[in-house]
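2 proteins. here.
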Amino acid sequence: MFQHPEVDDLVQCQSISKGEVLVMQQSYELMTIIDSSLESAMLENTIKRVDDILHSSGATVTLKDNFGKRTLAYSIDHRNEGVYVIFDFTVDKSQVAQMESALSLVDGIVRHRIIKIPENRASRPPTLLSSSGGSTHVNSMHTTGGMHGGMHVTRSDLNV
Protein backbone atom coordinates (compact mmCIF):
# COMPACT_ATOMS: atom_id res chain seq x y z
CA MET A 1 0.00 0.00 0.00
CA PHE A 2 1.14 3.54 -0.67
CA GLN A 3 -0.19 7.06 -0.43
CA HIS A 4 -0.56 8.87 -3.74
CA PRO A 5 1.28 12.24 -3.49
CA GLU A 6 -1.28 14.15 -5.60
CA VAL A 7 -4.33 13.25 -3.50
CA ASP A 8 -5.34 15.44 -0.53
CA ASP A 9 -7.37 12.81 1.31
CA LEU A 10 -5.98 9.53 2.54
CA VAL A 11 -6.12 7.12 -0.34
CA GLN A 12 -4.61 3.69 -0.10
CA CYS A 13 -3.90 1.77 -3.26
CA GLN A 14 -3.70 -2.00 -3.41
CA SER A 15 -2.94 -4.30 -6.31
CA ILE A 16 -5.29 -7.19 -6.88
CA SER A 17 -3.99 -10.32 -8.57
CA LYS A 18 -6.55 -10.15 -11.42
CA GLY A 19 -4.52 -8.26 -14.01
CA GLU A 20 -3.10 -5.70 -11.57
CA VAL A 21 -6.37 -3.81 -11.13
CA LEU A 22 -5.87 -0.78 -8.90
CA VAL A 23 -8.43 -0.34 -6.13
CA MET A 24 -8.63 3.02 -4.36
CA GLN A 25 -9.36 2.63 -0.65
CA GLN A 26 -10.18 5.44 1.75
CA SER A 27 -10.56 5.51 5.51
CA TYR A 28 -14.02 6.01 6.99
CA GLU A 29 -15.79 6.05 10.34
CA LEU A 30 -19.24 4.57 10.84
CA MET A 31 -21.17 5.61 13.92
CA THR A 32 -24.28 3.61 14.68
CA ILE A 33 -26.94 4.23 17.29
CA ILE A 34 -28.67 0.94 18.09
CA ASP A 35 -32.02 0.58 19.85
CA SER A 36 -31.21 0.30 23.55
CA SER A 37 -34.36 -1.73 24.25
CA LEU A 38 -32.95 -4.75 22.38
CA GLU A 39 -32.06 -7.80 24.44
CA SER A 40 -28.36 -8.57 24.75
CA ALA A 41 -28.41 -11.34 22.14
CA MET A 42 -30.28 -9.15 19.63
CA LEU A 43 -27.90 -6.26 20.28
CA GLU A 44 -24.88 -8.48 19.59
CA ASN A 45 -26.62 -9.84 16.49
CA THR A 46 -27.19 -6.28 15.21
CA ILE A 47 -23.53 -5.38 15.77
CA LYS A 48 -22.49 -8.58 13.98
CA ARG A 49 -24.83 -7.73 11.09
CA VAL A 50 -23.14 -4.31 10.72
CA ASP A 51 -19.73 -6.01 10.81
CA ASP A 52 -20.90 -8.48 8.13
CA ILE A 53 -22.10 -5.63 5.89
CA LEU A 54 -18.71 -3.94 6.16
CA HIS A 55 -16.79 -7.12 5.38
CA SER A 56 -19.08 -8.16 2.51
CA SER A 57 -18.40 -4.75 0.92
CA GLY A 58 -14.67 -5.45 1.03
CA ALA A 59 -13.96 -3.21 4.02
CA THR A 60 -11.09 -3.80 6.40
CA VAL A 61 -12.26 -2.90 9.90
CA THR A 62 -9.43 -1.26 11.86
CA LEU A 63 -11.36 -0.39 15.02
CA LYS A 64 -14.67 -1.41 16.60
CA ASP A 65 -15.56 0.61 19.68
CA ASN A 66 -18.74 -0.02 21.71
CA PHE A 67 -19.50 3.10 23.76
CA GLY A 68 -22.51 1.42 25.35
CA LYS A 69 -25.87 2.92 26.27
CA ARG A 70 -26.03 6.72 26.18
CA THR A 71 -28.79 9.32 26.48
CA LEU A 72 -29.66 10.87 23.12
CA ALA A 73 -29.45 14.63 22.66
CA TYR A 74 -33.07 14.52 21.52
CA SER A 75 -35.76 11.89 21.14
CA ILE A 76 -35.55 9.75 18.00
CA ASP A 77 -38.65 7.68 17.20
CA HIS A 78 -39.78 8.06 20.84
CA ARG A 79 -36.43 6.74 22.10
CA ASN A 80 -34.31 8.65 24.61
CA GLU A 81 -31.36 6.24 24.77
CA GLY A 82 -29.26 4.33 22.28
CA VAL A 83 -26.21 2.09 22.16
CA TYR A 84 -23.35 3.81 20.31
CA VAL A 85 -20.98 1.59 18.32
CA ILE A 86 -18.22 3.08 16.16
CA PHE A 87 -16.36 1.31 13.36
CA ASP A 88 -13.24 2.66 11.63
CA PHE A 89 -12.52 0.95 8.32
CA THR A 90 -10.96 1.26 4.88
CA VAL A 91 -12.91 0.45 1.75
CA ASP A 92 -13.13 1.27 -1.93
CA LYS A 93 -15.10 4.51 -2.07
CA SER A 94 -17.43 3.05 -4.70
CA GLN A 95 -18.81 0.68 -2.03
CA VAL A 96 -19.95 3.37 0.43
CA ALA A 97 -23.36 4.00 -1.18
CA GLN A 98 -24.11 0.26 -1.19
CA MET A 99 -23.11 0.05 2.48
CA GLU A 100 -25.40 3.00 3.33
CA SER A 101 -28.33 1.21 1.67
CA ALA A 102 -27.65 -2.06 3.45
CA LEU A 103 -27.28 -0.34 6.85
CA SER A 104 -30.59 1.49 6.43
CA LEU A 105 -32.34 -1.90 6.21
CA VAL A 106 -30.89 -3.36 9.42
CA ASP A 107 -33.53 -3.70 12.13
CA GLY A 108 -32.40 -2.23 15.41
CA ILE A 109 -30.30 0.61 13.99
CA VAL A 110 -31.90 3.90 15.01
CA ARG A 111 -29.36 6.09 13.16
CA HIS A 112 -26.09 5.64 11.34
CA ARG A 113 -23.61 7.89 9.59
CA ILE A 114 -20.50 7.20 7.54
CA ILE A 115 -17.90 9.95 7.33
CA LYS A 116 -14.57 10.08 5.56
CA ILE A 117 -11.66 10.26 7.99
CA PRO A 118 -9.29 13.16 7.28
CA GLU A 119 -5.71 12.22 6.45
CA ASN A 120 -4.29 13.73 9.63
CA ARG A 121 -6.49 11.43 11.74
CA ALA A 122 -6.13 8.20 9.82
CA SER A 123 -3.83 6.47 12.30
CA ARG A 124 -4.92 7.24 15.84
CA PRO A 125 -4.60 5.23 19.01
CA PRO A 126 -7.59 3.25 20.28
CA THR A 127 -9.96 4.77 22.80
CA LEU A 128 -8.60 5.16 26.30
CA LEU A 129 -11.30 5.32 28.95
CA SER A 130 -10.85 6.18 32.60
CA SER A 131 -13.23 6.60 35.50
CA SER A 132 -13.07 9.56 37.81
CA GLY A 133 -15.62 10.53 40.42
CA GLY A 134 -18.18 7.98 39.27
CA SER A 135 -18.23 9.04 35.61
CA THR A 136 -16.25 7.80 32.65
CA HIS A 137 -14.48 10.21 30.31
CA VAL A 138 -12.63 9.80 27.04
CA ASN A 139 -8.94 10.54 27.68
CA SER A 140 -7.38 10.20 24.26
CA MET A 141 -9.59 10.57 21.22
CA HIS A 142 -7.85 12.06 18.23
CA THR A 143 -10.92 12.34 16.04
CA THR A 144 -12.78 14.95 14.12
CA GLY A 145 -16.07 13.38 13.34
CA GLY A 146 -18.99 11.37 14.44
CA MET A 147 -22.58 11.80 15.37
CA HIS A 148 -24.18 12.03 18.81
CA GLY A 149 -27.96 11.83 18.87
CA GLY A 150 -28.08 13.16 15.33
CA MET A 151 -25.73 16.08 16.07
CA HIS A 152 -22.27 16.35 14.54
CA VAL A 153 -19.66 16.45 17.31
CA THR A 154 -16.13 15.26 17.90
CA ARG A 155 -15.70 12.11 19.93
CA SER A 156 -13.90 14.08 22.62
CA ASP A 157 -17.19 15.94 23.17
CA LEU A 158 -18.88 12.70 24.19
CA ASN A 159 -19.05 12.28 27.93
CA VAL A 160 -18.93 8.50 28.10
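next one coming up
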Amino acid sequence: MYEENGLAELLGNDRAVKFILLDQIVSLEPPTRIVARKSLTLAEEYLADHFPTFPVMPGVLMLEAMVQSAAWLVRASQDFSHSMIVLEEAKNINYKSFVSPGRSLEVTSEAIRIEEATSEFKAFGRSDDEEIVKARLRLRHYNLADANPELADTDEKVTSDLRKKFELLGGPSALKMATAMTSSS
Protein backbone atom coordinates (compact mmCIF):
# COMPACT_ATOMS: atom_id res chain seq x y z
CA MET A 1 0.00 0.00 0.00
CA TYR A 2 2.74 2.49 0.94
CA GLU A 3 4.64 1.99 -2.31
CA GLU A 4 1.58 2.95 -4.37
CA ASN A 5 1.16 6.38 -2.88
CA GLY A 6 4.81 7.23 -2.17
CA LEU A 7 4.55 6.88 1.59
CA ALA A 8 7.25 4.21 1.88
CA GLU A 9 10.03 6.75 1.75
CA LEU A 10 8.13 9.16 3.97
CA LEU A 11 7.81 6.52 6.67
CA GLY A 12 11.52 5.77 6.71
CA ASN A 13 12.15 2.55 4.84
CA ASP A 14 15.77 1.56 4.29
CA ARG A 15 15.93 3.26 0.88
CA ALA A 16 15.07 6.71 2.25
CA VAL A 17 17.79 9.16 3.20
CA LYS A 18 17.40 10.07 6.86
CA PHE A 19 18.97 13.07 8.50
CA ILE A 20 18.16 13.56 12.13
CA LEU A 21 20.17 16.70 12.61
CA LEU A 22 19.82 17.01 16.35
CA ASP A 23 21.62 14.91 18.93
CA GLN A 24 19.93 16.26 22.04
CA ILE A 25 17.12 18.49 23.20
CA VAL A 26 18.85 20.62 25.83
CA SER A 27 15.95 22.79 26.98
CA LEU A 28 12.25 22.74 26.21
CA GLU A 29 9.68 25.32 27.32
CA PRO A 30 6.43 24.66 25.42
CA PRO A 31 4.94 26.60 23.75
CA THR A 32 7.64 29.27 23.64
CA ARG A 33 11.18 27.97 23.25
CA ILE A 34 13.44 25.00 22.54
CA VAL A 35 17.22 24.61 22.55
CA ALA A 36 18.79 21.60 20.83
CA ARG A 37 22.32 20.55 19.96
CA LYS A 38 24.08 18.92 17.01
CA SER A 39 27.68 17.86 17.55
CA LEU A 40 29.51 17.63 14.25
CA THR A 41 32.03 14.82 13.75
CA LEU A 42 34.11 13.66 10.81
CA ALA A 43 31.85 10.60 10.71
CA GLU A 44 29.09 12.70 9.09
CA GLU A 45 28.82 11.15 5.63
CA TYR A 46 28.06 14.42 3.82
CA LEU A 47 31.35 15.98 4.96
CA ALA A 48 33.28 13.84 2.47
CA ASP A 49 31.84 16.00 -0.32
CA HIS A 50 31.31 19.29 1.54
CA PHE A 51 34.20 20.06 1.19
CA PRO A 52 36.95 17.40 0.99
CA THR A 53 39.76 19.75 2.09
CA PHE A 54 37.60 22.03 4.26
CA PRO A 55 34.76 19.96 5.80
CA VAL A 56 31.91 22.10 7.11
CA MET A 57 28.23 21.52 7.82
CA PRO A 58 26.24 22.56 4.74
CA GLY A 59 24.08 25.64 5.25
CA VAL A 60 20.95 23.82 4.15
CA LEU A 61 21.53 21.26 6.94
CA MET A 62 21.95 24.05 9.49
CA LEU A 63 18.59 25.36 8.28
CA GLU A 64 17.10 21.87 8.55
CA ALA A 65 18.39 21.57 12.13
CA MET A 66 16.50 24.78 12.97
CA VAL A 67 13.35 23.41 11.29
CA GLN A 68 13.65 20.14 13.20
CA SER A 69 14.01 21.95 16.53
CA ALA A 70 10.96 24.11 15.81
CA ALA A 71 8.99 21.00 14.81
CA TRP A 72 9.83 19.35 18.15
CA LEU A 73 8.53 22.42 19.95
CA VAL A 74 5.25 22.23 17.98
CA ARG A 75 4.90 18.52 18.77
CA ALA A 76 5.54 19.08 22.49
CA SER A 77 3.14 22.05 22.54
CA GLN A 78 0.34 20.19 20.73
CA ASP A 79 0.83 16.76 22.30
CA PHE A 80 1.96 15.20 19.01
CA SER A 81 -1.43 15.86 17.40
CA HIS A 82 0.02 16.07 13.84
CA SER A 83 2.05 13.41 12.10
CA MET A 84 3.48 15.84 9.55
CA ILE A 85 5.27 19.12 10.29
CA VAL A 86 6.93 20.63 7.24
CA LEU A 87 8.72 23.81 6.32
CA GLU A 88 6.41 26.15 4.48
CA GLU A 89 8.71 29.18 4.30
CA ALA A 90 12.17 30.23 5.43
CA LYS A 91 13.07 33.89 5.15
CA ASN A 92 15.75 36.31 6.26
CA ILE A 93 18.27 33.44 6.36
CA ASN A 94 21.67 34.78 7.35
CA TYR A 95 24.75 32.54 7.41
CA LYS A 96 27.59 34.15 9.33
CA SER A 97 30.19 31.40 9.76
CA PHE A 98 30.95 27.69 9.45
CA VAL A 99 30.57 24.70 11.73
CA SER A 100 33.46 22.29 11.36
CA PRO A 101 34.00 18.82 12.85
CA GLY A 102 34.71 18.94 16.56
CA ARG A 103 32.27 21.81 17.14
CA SER A 104 28.62 21.78 18.15
CA LEU A 105 25.77 23.78 16.71
CA GLU A 106 23.33 24.84 19.42
CA VAL A 107 19.98 25.68 17.85
CA THR A 108 17.35 27.83 19.52
CA SER A 109 13.85 28.20 18.13
CA GLU A 110 11.52 30.75 19.69
CA ALA A 111 7.85 30.63 18.80
CA ILE A 112 6.25 33.77 17.47
CA ARG A 113 2.97 31.89 17.24
CA ILE A 114 1.83 28.27 17.24
CA GLU A 115 -1.66 27.70 15.87
CA GLU A 116 -3.51 24.52 14.93
CA ALA A 117 -2.20 24.22 11.36
CA THR A 118 0.72 26.68 11.16
CA SER A 119 3.45 28.15 13.29
CA GLU A 120 6.14 30.82 13.00
CA PHE A 121 9.55 30.99 14.66
CA LYS A 122 12.67 33.02 15.08
CA ALA A 123 15.53 30.54 15.02
CA PHE A 124 19.28 30.83 15.34
CA GLY A 125 22.29 28.59 15.67
CA ARG A 126 25.38 29.29 17.76
CA SER A 127 28.72 27.59 18.15
CA ASP A 128 31.27 28.54 20.81
CA ASP A 129 29.30 31.71 21.66
CA GLU A 130 29.34 32.81 18.00
CA GLU A 131 26.12 33.22 16.05
CA ILE A 132 26.45 31.02 12.96
CA VAL A 133 23.01 31.19 11.32
CA LYS A 134 19.59 32.73 11.86
CA ALA A 135 16.25 32.67 10.07
CA ARG A 136 12.51 33.17 10.33
CA LEU A 137 10.55 29.96 9.76
CA ARG A 138 6.94 29.14 9.00
CA LEU A 139 5.85 25.54 9.44
CA ARG A 140 2.69 23.76 8.39
CA HIS A 141 1.28 20.88 10.47
CA TYR A 142 -1.25 18.30 9.36
CA ASN A 143 -2.19 14.65 9.35
CA LEU A 144 -2.19 12.47 6.26
CA ALA A 145 -5.75 11.44 7.14
CA ASP A 146 -6.86 15.05 6.59
CA ALA A 147 -6.58 14.39 2.84
CA ASN A 148 -7.21 10.64 2.91
CA PRO A 149 -9.00 9.09 5.92
CA GLU A 150 -7.58 5.68 4.99
CA LEU A 151 -4.18 6.95 6.19
CA ALA A 152 -5.22 7.37 9.83
CA ASP A 153 -3.26 4.24 10.80
CA THR A 154 -0.21 5.69 9.07
CA ASP A 155 -0.57 8.92 11.07
CA GLU A 156 -0.70 6.82 14.22
CA LYS A 157 2.46 4.89 13.29
CA VAL A 158 4.37 8.06 12.38
CA THR A 159 3.31 9.77 15.60
CA SER A 160 4.30 6.73 17.66
CA ASP A 161 7.75 6.68 16.00
CA LEU A 162 8.15 10.41 16.61
CA ARG A 163 7.36 9.98 20.31
CA LYS A 164 10.13 7.35 20.53
CA LYS A 165 12.61 9.68 18.79
CA PHE A 166 11.58 12.51 21.12
CA GLU A 167 12.41 10.31 24.09
CA LEU A 168 15.79 9.32 22.59
CA LEU A 169 16.64 12.99 22.05
CA GLY A 170 15.96 13.74 25.71
CA GLY A 171 12.74 15.67 25.16
CA PRO A 172 10.91 14.32 28.22
CA SER A 173 13.93 15.06 30.46
CA ALA A 174 14.23 18.60 29.10
CA LEU A 175 10.50 19.07 29.65
CA LYS A 176 10.71 17.83 33.25
CA MET A 177 13.62 20.19 33.96
CA ALA A 178 11.65 23.16 32.60
CA THR A 179 8.60 22.16 34.65
CA ALA A 180 10.69 21.79 37.83
CA MET A 181 12.32 25.19 37.30
CA THR A 182 8.93 26.84 36.74
CA SER A 183 7.34 25.26 39.84
CA SER A 184 10.30 26.22 42.08
CA SER A 185 10.14 29.90 41.05
